[in-house]
Design brief:
430 residues; single chain; 16 helices; two-stranded parallel ribbon
Protein backbone atom coordinates (compact mmCIF):
# COMPACT_ATOMS: atom_id res chain seq x y z
CA UNK A 1 0.00 0.00 0.00
CA UNK A 2 1.36 3.40 -1.03
CA UNK A 3 1.52 6.01 1.68
CA UNK A 4 1.01 9.66 0.89
CA UNK A 5 2.75 11.53 3.67
CA UNK A 6 2.14 14.99 2.20
CA UNK A 7 -1.20 16.65 2.85
CA UNK A 8 -2.16 18.31 -0.42
CA UNK A 9 -5.26 19.77 -1.93
CA UNK A 10 -6.09 17.42 -4.74
CA UNK A 11 -9.16 17.97 -6.94
CA UNK A 12 -11.41 15.00 -7.63
CA UNK A 13 -11.08 13.35 -11.01
CA UNK A 14 -13.61 14.79 -13.42
CA UNK A 15 -16.39 12.66 -14.85
CA UNK A 16 -17.66 9.30 -13.66
CA UNK A 17 -15.92 6.95 -11.25
CA UNK A 18 -13.58 9.46 -9.53
CA UNK A 19 -10.19 8.38 -8.16
CA UNK A 20 -8.33 10.35 -5.49
CA UNK A 21 -4.87 10.14 -3.94
CA UNK A 22 -5.71 12.44 -1.04
CA UNK A 23 -8.18 14.96 0.34
CA UNK A 24 -9.45 17.66 -2.06
CA UNK A 25 -9.48 20.21 0.79
CA UNK A 26 -6.71 22.17 2.48
CA UNK A 27 -5.57 21.27 5.98
CA UNK A 28 -7.36 24.31 7.39
CA UNK A 29 -10.60 23.33 5.65
CA UNK A 30 -10.52 19.73 6.86
CA UNK A 31 -9.83 20.86 10.42
CA UNK A 32 -12.77 23.29 10.31
CA UNK A 33 -15.06 20.67 8.76
CA UNK A 34 -13.96 18.16 11.38
CA UNK A 35 -14.80 20.57 14.19
CA UNK A 36 -18.29 21.19 12.81
CA UNK A 37 -19.04 17.49 12.37
CA UNK A 38 -17.60 16.67 15.80
CA UNK A 39 -19.90 19.28 17.35
CA UNK A 40 -22.89 17.81 15.52
CA UNK A 41 -21.97 14.31 16.67
CA UNK A 42 -21.63 15.26 20.33
CA UNK A 43 -24.87 17.24 20.30
CA UNK A 44 -26.75 14.11 19.16
CA UNK A 45 -24.92 11.63 21.40
CA UNK A 46 -25.46 13.84 24.45
CA UNK A 47 -29.22 13.87 23.77
CA UNK A 48 -29.74 10.09 23.57
CA UNK A 49 -32.27 8.67 25.99
CA UNK A 50 -35.54 6.83 26.37
CA UNK A 51 -36.82 7.57 22.86
CA UNK A 52 -33.93 5.75 21.20
CA UNK A 53 -34.09 2.90 23.73
CA UNK A 54 -37.83 2.40 23.17
CA UNK A 55 -37.31 2.57 19.41
CA UNK A 56 -34.76 -0.25 19.19
CA UNK A 57 -36.77 -2.37 21.63
CA UNK A 58 -39.83 -1.92 19.40
CA UNK A 59 -37.75 -2.95 16.40
CA UNK A 60 -36.62 -6.06 18.26
CA UNK A 61 -40.21 -6.92 19.24
CA UNK A 62 -41.34 -6.41 15.63
CA UNK A 63 -38.65 -8.81 14.41
CA UNK A 64 -39.64 -11.48 16.93
CA UNK A 65 -43.41 -11.29 16.50
CA UNK A 66 -43.37 -10.91 12.71
CA UNK A 67 -41.21 -14.04 12.49
CA UNK A 68 -43.60 -15.99 14.74
CA UNK A 69 -46.64 -14.95 12.70
CA UNK A 70 -44.82 -15.67 9.43
CA UNK A 71 -43.84 -19.16 10.50
CA UNK A 72 -47.42 -19.79 11.63
CA UNK A 73 -48.71 -18.77 8.20
CA UNK A 74 -46.19 -21.02 6.42
CA UNK A 75 -47.14 -23.97 8.59
CA UNK A 76 -50.83 -23.29 7.98
CA UNK A 77 -50.36 -23.00 4.22
CA UNK A 78 -49.53 -26.68 3.95
CA UNK A 79 -52.77 -27.66 5.69
CA UNK A 80 -55.21 -25.69 3.53
CA UNK A 81 -57.40 -27.62 1.14
CA UNK A 82 -57.48 -25.35 -1.92
CA UNK A 83 -54.55 -24.30 -4.05
CA UNK A 84 -55.40 -20.56 -4.11
CA UNK A 85 -55.57 -20.48 -0.31
CA UNK A 86 -52.31 -22.41 -0.03
CA UNK A 87 -50.49 -20.07 -2.42
CA UNK A 88 -51.96 -16.91 -0.88
CA UNK A 89 -51.11 -17.94 2.66
CA UNK A 90 -47.63 -19.08 1.62
CA UNK A 91 -46.98 -15.75 -0.11
CA UNK A 92 -48.16 -13.82 2.95
CA UNK A 93 -46.00 -15.93 5.27
CA UNK A 94 -42.94 -15.68 3.02
CA UNK A 95 -43.33 -11.91 2.59
CA UNK A 96 -43.66 -11.42 6.34
CA UNK A 97 -40.68 -13.68 7.04
CA UNK A 98 -38.63 -11.75 4.45
CA UNK A 99 -39.61 -8.52 6.21
CA UNK A 100 -38.57 -9.98 9.58
CA UNK A 101 -35.21 -11.18 8.30
CA UNK A 102 -34.50 -7.87 6.55
CA UNK A 103 -35.40 -5.89 9.65
CA UNK A 104 -33.33 -8.28 11.79
CA UNK A 105 -30.24 -7.82 9.64
CA UNK A 106 -30.50 -4.15 8.72
CA UNK A 107 -32.14 -1.97 11.38
CA UNK A 108 -31.50 -4.32 14.29
CA UNK A 109 -28.40 -6.49 13.82
CA UNK A 110 -26.22 -4.17 11.72
CA UNK A 111 -26.83 -1.19 13.97
CA UNK A 112 -26.66 -2.98 17.32
CA UNK A 113 -23.40 -4.69 16.32
CA UNK A 114 -21.96 -1.28 15.42
CA UNK A 115 -22.30 -0.39 19.10
CA UNK A 116 -25.03 2.18 18.44
CA UNK A 117 -26.95 1.07 21.52
CA UNK A 118 -24.14 0.02 23.87
CA UNK A 119 -24.87 3.11 25.98
CA UNK A 120 -28.15 1.44 27.02
CA UNK A 121 -26.22 -1.38 28.78
CA UNK A 122 -28.95 -3.75 27.61
CA UNK A 123 -28.35 -7.45 28.36
CA UNK A 124 -28.46 -8.52 24.70
CA UNK A 125 -29.00 -5.44 22.51
CA UNK A 126 -25.30 -4.65 22.59
CA UNK A 127 -22.38 -5.11 20.20
CA UNK A 128 -20.71 -7.84 22.27
CA UNK A 129 -23.63 -10.25 22.66
CA UNK A 130 -26.07 -9.72 19.78
CA UNK A 131 -25.97 -12.18 16.89
CA UNK A 132 -28.09 -11.77 13.80
CA UNK A 133 -30.08 -14.17 11.65
CA UNK A 134 -27.63 -15.10 8.92
CA UNK A 135 -24.64 -17.40 8.41
CA UNK A 136 -21.92 -14.85 9.27
CA UNK A 137 -20.71 -14.85 12.90
CA UNK A 138 -20.86 -11.36 14.37
CA UNK A 139 -17.14 -11.20 15.42
CA UNK A 140 -16.00 -11.97 11.86
CA UNK A 141 -18.32 -9.34 10.42
CA UNK A 142 -17.25 -6.78 13.00
CA UNK A 143 -13.60 -7.26 12.01
CA UNK A 144 -14.10 -7.03 8.25
CA UNK A 145 -16.82 -4.38 8.41
CA UNK A 146 -16.68 -2.29 11.60
CA UNK A 147 -12.89 -2.15 11.66
CA UNK A 148 -11.46 -2.59 8.15
CA UNK A 149 -14.26 -1.16 6.01
CA UNK A 150 -15.13 1.80 8.23
CA UNK A 151 -11.50 2.65 8.99
CA UNK A 152 -10.11 2.36 5.45
CA UNK A 153 -13.26 3.16 3.47
CA UNK A 154 -12.72 2.95 -0.31
CA UNK A 155 -8.92 2.77 -0.05
CA UNK A 156 -7.94 0.20 -2.65
CA UNK A 157 -6.02 -2.65 -1.05
CA UNK A 158 -7.11 -1.75 2.48
CA UNK A 159 -10.90 -1.74 2.18
CA UNK A 160 -11.72 -5.24 0.95
CA UNK A 161 -15.35 -4.31 0.37
CA UNK A 162 -14.20 -2.58 -2.85
CA UNK A 163 -15.41 -5.26 -5.22
CA UNK A 164 -15.46 -7.96 -2.50
CA UNK A 165 -12.46 -9.66 -4.18
CA UNK A 166 -14.84 -10.58 -6.98
CA UNK A 167 -16.07 -7.59 -8.99
CA UNK A 168 -13.98 -4.91 -10.70
CA UNK A 169 -15.35 -1.44 -9.89
CA UNK A 170 -12.44 0.91 -10.69
CA UNK A 171 -9.64 1.44 -13.23
CA UNK A 172 -7.16 0.92 -10.42
CA UNK A 173 -8.06 -2.78 -10.33
CA UNK A 174 -6.16 -4.63 -13.06
CA UNK A 175 -8.49 -6.04 -15.71
CA UNK A 176 -8.55 -9.82 -16.07
CA UNK A 177 -10.56 -12.00 -18.45
CA UNK A 178 -12.89 -13.05 -15.61
CA UNK A 179 -14.05 -9.43 -15.36
CA UNK A 180 -15.99 -9.99 -18.58
CA UNK A 181 -18.44 -11.86 -16.37
CA UNK A 182 -18.84 -8.99 -13.91
CA UNK A 183 -22.62 -8.93 -14.31
CA UNK A 184 -22.97 -12.69 -13.84
CA UNK A 185 -20.68 -12.66 -10.80
CA UNK A 186 -22.69 -9.78 -9.37
CA UNK A 187 -25.91 -11.78 -9.72
CA UNK A 188 -24.36 -14.72 -7.89
CA UNK A 189 -23.03 -12.39 -5.19
CA UNK A 190 -26.45 -10.79 -4.73
CA UNK A 191 -28.31 -14.11 -4.46
CA UNK A 192 -25.88 -15.48 -1.89
CA UNK A 193 -24.81 -12.25 -0.24
CA UNK A 194 -24.90 -13.60 3.33
CA UNK A 195 -22.51 -16.39 2.27
CA UNK A 196 -20.11 -13.94 0.65
CA UNK A 197 -20.15 -11.82 3.81
CA UNK A 198 -19.60 -14.92 5.95
CA UNK A 199 -16.46 -16.04 4.10
CA UNK A 200 -15.26 -12.47 3.46
CA UNK A 201 -13.34 -12.20 6.73
CA UNK A 202 -11.67 -15.58 6.15
CA UNK A 203 -10.40 -14.37 2.80
CA UNK A 204 -9.13 -11.13 4.34
CA UNK A 205 -7.56 -12.72 7.40
CA UNK A 206 -5.49 -15.30 5.49
CA UNK A 207 -3.50 -12.38 4.05
CA UNK A 208 -3.71 -10.10 7.09
CA UNK A 209 -2.19 -12.68 9.45
CA UNK A 210 0.09 -14.35 6.88
CA UNK A 211 3.28 -13.30 8.69
CA UNK A 212 1.93 -13.75 12.19
CA UNK A 213 3.01 -16.71 14.37
CA UNK A 214 -0.64 -16.76 15.50
CA UNK A 215 -1.87 -17.42 11.94
CA UNK A 216 -3.05 -20.98 12.46
CA UNK A 217 -4.61 -20.33 15.87
CA UNK A 218 -6.40 -17.21 14.64
CA UNK A 219 -7.67 -18.83 11.45
CA UNK A 220 -8.74 -21.95 13.31
CA UNK A 221 -10.86 -19.87 15.70
CA UNK A 222 -12.42 -17.91 12.86
CA UNK A 223 -13.08 -21.00 10.70
CA UNK A 224 -14.61 -22.99 13.53
CA UNK A 225 -16.83 -20.06 14.50
CA UNK A 226 -17.91 -19.73 10.87
CA UNK A 227 -18.83 -23.38 10.40
CA UNK A 228 -20.57 -23.50 13.78
CA UNK A 229 -22.73 -20.52 12.76
CA UNK A 230 -23.43 -22.05 9.35
CA UNK A 231 -24.50 -25.29 11.03
CA UNK A 232 -26.86 -23.40 13.35
CA UNK A 233 -28.45 -21.35 10.59
CA UNK A 234 -28.75 -24.14 8.04
CA UNK A 235 -29.96 -26.49 10.76
CA UNK A 236 -32.62 -24.03 11.93
CA UNK A 237 -34.02 -22.95 8.57
CA UNK A 238 -33.63 -26.10 6.50
CA UNK A 239 -33.70 -29.04 8.95
CA UNK A 240 -35.09 -28.40 12.45
CA UNK A 241 -38.04 -26.11 11.65
CA UNK A 242 -39.28 -27.99 8.53
CA UNK A 243 -38.87 -31.35 10.29
CA UNK A 244 -40.65 -30.18 13.44
CA UNK A 245 -43.53 -28.71 11.46
CA UNK A 246 -43.68 -31.81 9.25
CA UNK A 247 -43.90 -34.19 12.20
CA UNK A 248 -46.64 -32.05 13.74
CA UNK A 249 -48.72 -30.94 10.77
CA UNK A 250 -47.63 -33.09 7.85
CA UNK A 251 -45.53 -33.07 4.71
CA UNK A 252 -47.30 -30.10 3.10
CA UNK A 253 -46.52 -27.82 6.03
CA UNK A 254 -42.90 -29.01 6.06
CA UNK A 255 -42.47 -28.16 2.37
CA UNK A 256 -44.17 -24.79 2.81
CA UNK A 257 -41.86 -23.96 5.71
CA UNK A 258 -38.74 -25.13 3.88
CA UNK A 259 -39.52 -23.23 0.67
CA UNK A 260 -40.61 -20.13 2.60
CA UNK A 261 -37.37 -20.08 4.59
CA UNK A 262 -35.26 -20.45 1.45
CA UNK A 263 -37.19 -17.74 -0.42
CA UNK A 264 -37.03 -15.31 2.51
CA UNK A 265 -33.26 -15.80 2.82
CA UNK A 266 -32.76 -15.05 -0.87
CA UNK A 267 -35.06 -12.00 -0.67
CA UNK A 268 -33.08 -10.71 2.31
CA UNK A 269 -29.80 -11.30 0.44
CA UNK A 270 -30.97 -9.42 -2.66
CA UNK A 271 -32.25 -6.48 -0.62
CA UNK A 272 -29.12 -6.24 1.51
CA UNK A 273 -26.85 -6.42 -1.55
CA UNK A 274 -28.87 -3.74 -3.35
CA UNK A 275 -28.75 -1.32 -0.41
CA UNK A 276 -25.03 -1.88 0.24
CA UNK A 277 -23.99 -1.47 -3.39
CA UNK A 278 -26.17 1.62 -3.88
CA UNK A 279 -24.41 3.14 -0.88
CA UNK A 280 -20.88 2.49 -2.16
CA UNK A 281 -20.63 2.05 -5.94
CA UNK A 282 -22.62 4.78 -7.67
CA UNK A 283 -20.96 6.90 -10.37
CA UNK A 284 -19.63 9.54 -7.97
CA UNK A 285 -18.49 7.22 -5.18
CA UNK A 286 -14.78 8.06 -4.92
CA UNK A 287 -12.08 5.38 -4.77
CA UNK A 288 -8.78 6.22 -3.04
CA UNK A 289 -5.44 4.82 -4.14
CA UNK A 290 -3.40 5.92 -1.15
CA UNK A 291 -3.62 6.19 2.61
CA UNK A 292 -2.46 9.51 4.02
CA UNK A 293 -0.05 8.64 6.83
CA UNK A 294 -1.01 11.91 8.55
CA UNK A 295 -4.74 11.63 8.00
CA UNK A 296 -6.67 13.73 10.52
CA UNK A 297 -10.24 13.16 11.67
CA UNK A 298 -11.30 15.87 9.25
CA UNK A 299 -9.54 14.08 6.37
CA UNK A 300 -11.25 10.86 7.42
CA UNK A 301 -14.63 12.61 7.38
CA UNK A 302 -13.97 13.86 3.85
CA UNK A 303 -13.07 10.35 2.66
CA UNK A 304 -16.23 8.92 4.20
CA UNK A 305 -18.41 11.58 2.59
CA UNK A 306 -16.93 11.26 -0.89
CA UNK A 307 -16.91 7.46 -0.78
CA UNK A 308 -20.59 7.09 0.17
CA UNK A 309 -23.97 7.63 -1.47
CA UNK A 310 -27.41 8.20 0.03
CA UNK A 311 -30.76 6.90 -1.19
CA UNK A 312 -33.98 8.91 -1.02
CA UNK A 313 -37.15 7.22 0.17
CA UNK A 314 -40.01 7.01 2.64
CA UNK A 315 -39.66 6.47 6.39
CA UNK A 316 -40.47 2.75 5.99
CA UNK A 317 -37.89 2.49 3.22
CA UNK A 318 -35.23 4.00 5.47
CA UNK A 319 -36.10 1.59 8.29
CA UNK A 320 -35.88 -1.42 5.96
CA UNK A 321 -32.44 -0.29 4.81
CA UNK A 322 -31.31 -0.05 8.44
CA UNK A 323 -31.03 3.66 7.63
CA UNK A 324 -28.10 2.77 5.38
CA UNK A 325 -30.04 4.83 2.88
CA UNK A 326 -28.29 7.58 4.90
CA UNK A 327 -24.95 5.99 4.06
CA UNK A 328 -23.05 9.29 4.30
CA UNK A 329 -24.31 9.93 7.82
CA UNK A 330 -23.62 6.31 8.77
CA UNK A 331 -20.05 6.46 7.52
CA UNK A 332 -19.17 9.63 9.38
CA UNK A 333 -21.01 8.54 12.55
CA UNK A 334 -21.11 4.71 12.54
CA UNK A 335 -21.85 4.38 16.27
CA UNK A 336 -24.66 6.95 16.32
CA UNK A 337 -28.15 5.36 16.52
CA UNK A 338 -29.25 5.14 12.90
CA UNK A 339 -32.73 6.38 13.75
CA UNK A 340 -31.17 9.85 14.17
CA UNK A 341 -29.57 10.01 10.71
CA UNK A 342 -32.62 11.48 8.97
CA UNK A 343 -32.78 14.38 11.44
CA UNK A 344 -29.13 15.37 10.97
CA UNK A 345 -28.98 14.79 7.19
CA UNK A 346 -29.89 18.41 6.28
CA UNK A 347 -27.12 19.71 8.55
CA UNK A 348 -24.59 17.29 7.08
CA UNK A 349 -25.63 18.28 3.57
CA UNK A 350 -25.26 21.96 4.44
CA UNK A 351 -21.75 21.37 5.79
CA UNK A 352 -20.81 19.49 2.61
CA UNK A 353 -22.13 22.36 0.50
CA UNK A 354 -20.18 24.87 2.60
CA UNK A 355 -16.89 23.08 1.88
CA UNK A 356 -17.65 22.21 -1.74
CA UNK A 357 -18.01 18.46 -1.18
CA UNK A 358 -20.44 16.40 -3.22
CA UNK A 359 -23.36 15.12 -1.13
CA UNK A 360 -24.36 12.20 -3.35
CA UNK A 361 -28.03 11.32 -3.03
CA UNK A 362 -30.77 10.07 -5.34
CA UNK A 363 -33.75 7.79 -5.71
CA UNK A 364 -33.16 4.06 -5.39
CA UNK A 365 -33.83 3.54 -9.09
CA UNK A 366 -31.23 6.17 -10.02
CA UNK A 367 -28.56 4.86 -7.67
CA UNK A 368 -29.22 1.24 -8.65
CA UNK A 369 -28.97 2.07 -12.35
CA UNK A 370 -25.63 3.78 -11.73
CA UNK A 371 -24.34 0.76 -9.80
CA UNK A 372 -25.20 -1.61 -12.65
CA UNK A 373 -23.66 0.85 -15.12
CA UNK A 374 -20.44 0.93 -13.12
CA UNK A 375 -20.21 -2.84 -12.92
CA UNK A 376 -20.90 -3.19 -16.64
CA UNK A 377 -18.40 -0.45 -17.50
CA UNK A 378 -15.52 -2.11 -15.67
CA UNK A 379 -16.26 -5.52 -17.14
CA UNK A 380 -14.74 -4.27 -20.39
CA UNK A 381 -11.00 -3.59 -20.83
CA UNK A 382 -9.67 -0.38 -22.29
CA UNK A 383 -7.62 -0.62 -25.48
CA UNK A 384 -4.40 -0.48 -23.46
CA UNK A 385 -5.62 -3.12 -21.01
CA UNK A 386 -6.61 -5.46 -23.83
CA UNK A 387 -3.25 -5.00 -25.53
CA UNK A 388 -1.43 -5.75 -22.27
CA UNK A 389 -3.54 -8.85 -21.82
CA UNK A 390 -2.88 -10.19 -25.33
CA UNK A 391 0.84 -9.57 -24.92
CA UNK A 392 0.86 -11.47 -21.64
CA UNK A 393 -0.84 -14.43 -23.30
CA UNK A 394 2.04 -14.74 -25.74
CA UNK A 395 4.44 -15.41 -22.86
CA UNK A 396 2.15 -17.29 -20.54
CA UNK A 397 3.45 -20.76 -21.40
CA UNK A 398 7.05 -19.73 -20.80
CA UNK A 399 6.20 -17.95 -17.56
CA UNK A 400 4.21 -20.90 -16.30
CA UNK A 401 6.96 -23.36 -17.16
CA UNK A 402 9.60 -21.32 -15.36
CA UNK A 403 7.50 -20.91 -12.23
CA UNK A 404 6.18 -24.40 -11.68
CA UNK A 405 6.67 -25.53 -8.09
CA UNK A 406 7.12 -29.32 -8.08
CA UNK A 407 5.74 -29.41 -4.52
CA UNK A 408 2.51 -27.68 -5.51
CA UNK A 409 -0.41 -30.01 -5.89
CA UNK A 410 -3.69 -29.18 -7.53
CA UNK A 411 -6.80 -29.72 -5.41
CA UNK A 412 -8.18 -33.23 -5.70
CA UNK A 413 -11.46 -34.91 -4.85
CA UNK A 414 -14.39 -32.77 -3.80
CA UNK A 415 -12.07 -29.91 -2.82
CA UNK A 416 -11.43 -29.07 -6.46
CA UNK A 417 -15.05 -27.89 -6.69
CA UNK A 418 -14.60 -25.45 -3.78
CA UNK A 419 -13.43 -21.86 -4.08
CA UNK A 420 -10.00 -21.07 -2.58
CA UNK A 421 -11.52 -19.20 0.37
CA UNK A 422 -13.75 -22.16 1.28
CA UNK A 423 -10.76 -24.51 1.02
CA UNK A 424 -8.84 -22.19 3.37
CA UNK A 425 -11.68 -22.23 5.88
CA UNK A 426 -11.97 -26.01 5.76
CA UNK A 427 -8.23 -26.57 6.08
CA UNK A 428 -7.90 -24.29 9.12
CA UNK A 429 -11.02 -25.60 10.87
CA UNK A 430 -9.48 -28.96 11.75
Amino acid sequence: MKINSNHKSLPPQAGRYPILTGTPLTKEQTEALGEELNALYHSVMDSLGSDEAKYIQRVYATVVYSELVARGLLATAGRLSTKPHQVGTWLAGTALLSFSKILNNMELGHNVMHGQYDWMQHPYLNSQKFDWDNVCPSPLWQHSHNYLHHTFTNILGRDHDVGYHLIRVTDEQTWTPSDRYNMFKTAILALGFEWAVAFHDIQISVDEYADSPELHKTMQQKSRALFAKIARQVGKDYIVLPTTVGLTLGRGSALATLSGNATANVARNLWTWGVIFCGHFTEQAHIYTQLDANESKGDWYVRQILGSSNIKGSKLFHILTGNLSHQIEHHIFPDMPASRYASIAPQVQAICQKYGLTYNTGRFSTQFRQVLGRIRHFSKPSADEWQAHTQSLANIDTIAANNVDPNTQAPTGLSRFLSPVVRHAVSYAW
